[in-house]
Fold each of these.
Amino acid sequence: MSRWRARPGPPGWGDRSTERSVTHATAANPGRPAERDISRALAALGPRKLVFVGLMGAGKSAIGRLVAQWLQVPFFDSDHEIERASRMSISDLFAAYGEAEFRALEARVIRRLMKNGAGVVSTGGGAYMNEKNRRVIGDKGLAVWLDAELDVLWERVSRRDNRPLLKTEDPKGTLQTLMEARYPVYATAPLRVLSRDAPRETIAGEVISALAAVAAQDTGNVS
Ligand SMILES: Nc1ncnc2c1ncn2[C@@H]1O[C@H](COP(=O)(O)OP(=O)(O)OP(=O)(O)O)[C@@H](O)[C@H]1O
Ligand SMILES: O=C(O)C1=C[C@@H](O)[C@@H](O)[C@H](O)C1
Ligand SMILES: [Mg+2]
């Protein structure tokens, strides 16, 4: 049994026991899950960070941002934080200092982002491969793996050339090699959601459901 307990949601979110499971989607918030599910997801998260892990193109940044917006918690993207701190693009960082320096900076940024309570952190595709990163994420967060098939990833990443690891003669083959090396490690994340050719709101909704299910298991209060 986890030490995390379901707690009431923030003021104004209503009583979980009486709230109806209706969707609260609006024109400004299409696909937003029911308040009851949002409230349960927040209770499961507690003061932790929900940390998106997975390969390039899985949707960590896009889905993470939407989930944070729905949960009304701060959102951070480790790649963006690295670019902000270094005032360089990731491609330029790789070119100027090499991957090892990038990974050192990434580890520092992740350690910092894991502090200070509830939120959502979308990591870069290689971050979860570092054992120290996995440890800090496990201590202060809850990792969700956005699993995706090669063709889905390829269709998305081939639109842009901003991923230095894919600047090879056979980028799709490189992506496949990365999948084979990384998926067993991503699979150690406690939560997994299949990212596929479906609306972002569908995938984000499944992340909220996966989180809400953690709350239900922890409390034994499944309804
Ligand atoms: N469900 C979806 N449907 C359609 N497009 C999507 C979906 N999810 C993500 N995308 C798009 O795919 C592209 C890659 O997504 P995103 O940048 O979020 O991936 P990522 O996992 O953060 O990759 P990286 O590890 O390189 O940061 C973006 O253009 C994003 O808008
Ligand atoms: O998969 C990876 O190792 C990477 C993914 C991107 O998010 C960036 O963090 C960088 O391009 C490296
Ligand atoms: Mg990203």
Amino acid sequence: MTVIEIDGLRKGYRGGTAVDGVSLRVGRGEIFGIAGPNGAGKTTVVECASGLRRPDGGTVRVLGLDPQTDRRRLLQRVGAQLQEAALPDAITVGEALRMYASFYDDPADWRALMDQWGLTERRRTGFGKLSGGWKQRLFIALALVGRPEVVFLDELTTSLDPSARRTTWGLIRDIRERGVTVVLVTHFMDEAEALCDRLAIMDRGRVVATGTPAGLIAEGRCRSLDEAYFALITENGV
Ligand SMILES: Nc1ncnc2c1ncn2[C@@H]1O[C@H](COP(=O)(O)OP(=O)(O)OP(=O)(O)O)[C@@H](O)[C@H]1O
């Protein structure tokens, strides 16, 4: 079953076109990656799909709902960890989880979630005192507190050390095992190869290839996903 259907999505900002006719399909239970250079439009696609930005053109359906007109209903069924997320420094881990749980009609048990993500020891720690890795963990837990069917994770492991990245990969696989569809924006081809069932490579506002990691490697007659990626994108020197 298709849970995300995007057709001909267009979005521009004052500076120009960010997304220029993107079409994507994501199936239930997939880990779907979106990769591409800085400024390719990845975050804008995710923001349009999660209802945070209004597209200029095209259609977006998530779980059959239009993120603009059905935003309230959709927010009950999707979770998002977005790139520039922040919380007030003084709010504690426990308070943040409890507060987010209150936004949903049928939330997960936030204490159990806190435990599952190893956050219980830090429940009284203020957000401002958490290291980058613990902030990321908290954001994943917050994205899951509404028991979402679809979760958007944007550059989840960018600020993590290598072992925290590996741990996070395991946690993302756990999310999928529970039947949740995961959309993962990433800059790391090793991450895409390890986690993604399929991925879209974006460049300058367009999808330049979609496929399984193995399929993209084979199609480009490459030895690795890294090589396939660099063959697909135009270096723009940003
Ligand atoms: N709020 C905004 N106002 C103006 N321009 C924006 C805004 N958000 C994004 N853009 C521009 O739109 C284009 C696409 O940005 P977007 O953040 O979607 O790309 P991205 O692929 O996620 O990049 P990155 O890998 O750097 O996060 C870029 O040129 C960016 O400068």
Amino acid sequence: MTRLLQTIEPILWRDEQLHLLDQRVLPHTENWLAFYDSDAVAEAIKLMVVRGAPAIGVTAAYGVVLAAREAWFSAGENWQEALIPALKRLAASRPTAVNLFWAIERMQQTCNTLSKYESPEPALLEQAKRIHQEDVKANRTMGQYGADLLDNDSIVLTHCNAGALATAGFGTALGVIRQGFIDGKIEHVYVDETRPWLQGSRLTAWELMQEGIPMTLQADVAAGALMAGGRLDWVIVGADRIASNGDTANKIGTYSLAVLAKYHGVKVMVVAPTTTIDWSIENGSQIPIEQRAHSEVSEIEGHAIAPAKVHVSNPAFDVTPAALIDAIVTEEGVVSSPSKEKMQQLKKEEKNDTNSISDRM
Ligand SMILES: CSC[C@@H](O)[C@@H](O)C(=O)COP(=O)(O)O
């Protein structure tokens, strides 16, 4: 019988408000923030109070609920028009994770079915809750599909945080690691600290330690030596946007890991729900890469670690070509050695739009 591990859920809807666990201050402080206006939700996504592609999508869906409430109060029967600027501000919060645009578009589709004479909030809230629950369910399914790929006593490396905190609960890459641990297949997890924002040391280490999953934190630059030592089986990561040929954008440093893994014969698993696939783009070169504040690199917790006015580059993501990926695990199934043709098996009803979702926002 499958043991169901309960994990933290970083997004809650309670008392007609959205509540987010503030990921900027973890692991030292567990602070929940309440949101009742959509612009504050857009700002929270931008500032990474909430982060991780699926979590951003779920949060944006609730942001649309709040925006619709505001539009109904301010514009009555013209609420649909009044809603559009707020949706644009939500969509402008972060550019790379496609789940954001997917969730806003799905909420907009619900808007299109509603009467202009009635408050849209109940129907939109129901839709946002559905998106929320579907993500938890997808994570559980992916967890098992991914764990089934692992041999007994596997030693794995993960990068960034693709855990419960990055989703509605359970996690994508960490969902596989959690399920693998439950199934007795995980011997040890190496966690990259993930400079510059330190999602690995602050968030992934916190999640794994809470559950007693054996882990070691390491500097990102230690990955090559770990692989050369010969005791690593899989690199397991999440994704922010997957192109229709399987090229995958994920946290900066993932590409370097995949190149190292290829050289050392270590396998690479990408775990992401189908809401992370952008069928409208052919390959990874079309994925917009977010540039974040220079201070994320030149400072740590407000303390300068570089000369004043140093020139900094801070791309938040990189693209790993499909040829370096051994398996893409989704809730619709696993694609081994992904290619444009093989990715098609994951397609259900998605339309093959020519414009990318983010272009349409
Ligand atoms: C399930 S999360 C997958 C990705 O979103 C994750 O690996 C990642 O890159 C998150 O980046 P972040 O900048 O912290 O939002």
